[in-house]
Write the structure tokens for this entry.
Amino acid sequence: MARPSRSVNARLAATLVLFGLLGGCDWINDRIGPAAVERGNRVDPEKLAQITPGVQTRTDVEALLGSPTARGTFDEDNWYYISARSRIQPGRFLEIEDRRVVAISFNRQGVVSGIRELGQQDGRNVQMVSRETPVPGTERSLLQALFGSIGRPGLDRAGTSPTSLPGQRAATAAR
């Protein structure tokens, strides 16, 4: 059996070294890559500990934590402080490093009734739907097909489109 030549061995060694160096690029990118971006209203744990259910009101909570990121859609008595730390990697999707949601609920008098932190297990993955919304007017019914051309200029006897429209000269007459 013939042994591979030195050039084949050199190419193989160079390829292995190249893959090793490229693997290190990810490590370098993590160290000196783009900075993390904070989004939303990150709640300070020390300030959150100052809120006692049954004592503070909406005004107190807003003064302490700031305005909420979102309020309940159907119930204004639920406030949500949502924050995320993300990093954009070149050639990749947005990478979420940390996500935090603090939900504060109030009773009818506007006093804090509960505080809870929602984690990733409390969220739901929303799947994209590939269906398309039909656009009205693109499909013709049987009656529209039968009676739709009444009052509109149609095809002439040769099966071609009309030569002129009202207010325009005929294309064949101009030639």
User: Anything to note?
Assistant: The radius of gyration is 34 Å. The longest strand covers residues 94-106. Residues 76 and 106 are 9 Å apart (CA to CA).
